[in-house]
Design a protein that fits this description.
Blueprint: H1 4-8, H2 10-14, H3 16-29, H4 32-53, H5 67-88, H6 90-97, H7 101-106, H8 112-140, H9 152-173, H10 178-194, H11 206-214, H12 216-229, H13 237-263
Amino acid sequence: MVSVAERAGPGTARVPALGVLGYYLVAYRRTWRAGVFSSFLLPVLTVVGFGVGVGAYVNRGVGGVPYLDWLVPGLIASAALQTAVAESTWPVHSNFKWIRTYHAQVAAPLRVGDIVAGHLAFVLFRVVTSVVAFLLVTALFGALRSPWALTVPLVVLLLGLAVAAPTFAFSAAVPSDSYLALFFRFAVIPMTLFAGVFFPVEQLPGGLRQLAYLTPLWHGVDLCRAATLGVPPQWSVAGHLLYLAAWAAAGWLLATRVFRRSLVV
């Protein structure tokens, strides 16, 4: 029996996950134009509204840095988080419950690991492209103060994987999409508000501060802020990277286990 990956070409036959990635890229080729305008409009509105508007009331900035320059890396990391979650919730859940794409892929035949890896690769593609658009917009506002800002796409790549992989497992395991709305309400929104995006985490009470430190977003924010401002992060770079890698590895193992339980009879 010849698999879909083998029919797609020798490269995808050797790496079947590339065939899965290709499937999502072909579908995205038909819809990308609808998102290009918002990919640039949203950063402009966010930077103007929060950075310029709110920043006008923060006379001394934050830690001697103008509020716009301090805010931008947090917004970039937050945009990466929200893109990763958006692409890992309803799309994953629908592939199980509604359109059953995963069931067709596992019958192709493809291994569960290839299905997870290929879809995750597409999610990371979406994360990086959205962040690059954000970087281009903020560069026009002069809010990038260091050439180390070029490393931000690599940071958000790891942050996106650290967020998307466990979200894949959650979206695959819940029985109804109503749980996804609860996930946004009680996990994504609080994380966005209290993980150092809009104000320093040190201003939070001790208990909430420790919770903020546990979130992957705070580690991504601190790394992005260090890169765009050209300053050392609050934690070591290695510590941040290892923590995000641990989230990504644990999420990958959990997602693969949940997918296999649902797809392999």
